[in-house]
Design goal:
Elements: E1 10-11, H1 33-39, E2 50-51, H2 53-61, H3 67-76, H4 84-87, E3 88-89, E4 98-100, E5 105-108, E6 110-112, E7 118-120, E8 140-141, E9 144-145
Parallel strand pairs: 3-6, 5-8
Antiparallel strand pairs: 1-2, 4-5, 6-7, 8-9
Amino acid sequence: MQRSKEPLYRRVNTRTHGVRHKSGGDFRWSRRRDDRQAMGAMASGAQRGLDYTPLFRFLLSRVGRDWDAVLGEATARLDRPDPIYWLVARSEEERRPVVLLGESSWFSGLYVDDANRLALVDPDLTVEQMEPSCACCTHTLNGVPFVRPYRPAPD
């Protein structure tokens, strides 16, 4: 019996004390019924608690391989295909050398070249070239912490 491969996402504990979500909460404080109706329905489709870092590392490890094979394996191991295109540009206008996913996690941008191979938008980009935008967070490029220290902008 063949063992199925692990999914390319992981569930994050969202019930721990101190975990905050960005949306919601204002609805309960409105007093009047017509105020509540004007606000619309509550968002029931919000998906919280999923971390797609394993997917991003999987895609970066497959640079240079056939896109159809990579896409097929990735979609089979995901709950939905949308996160693939957070990193992989669908058109030339969407190509970015780096993509910010989260507060301080940067990943190299990817695209599909003319030979139908997964490729890096900027193959010469290294973690040594990246500068953090604040001193409070640990900034990373493809999971590797930035080397340069934070320097505030001159006034």
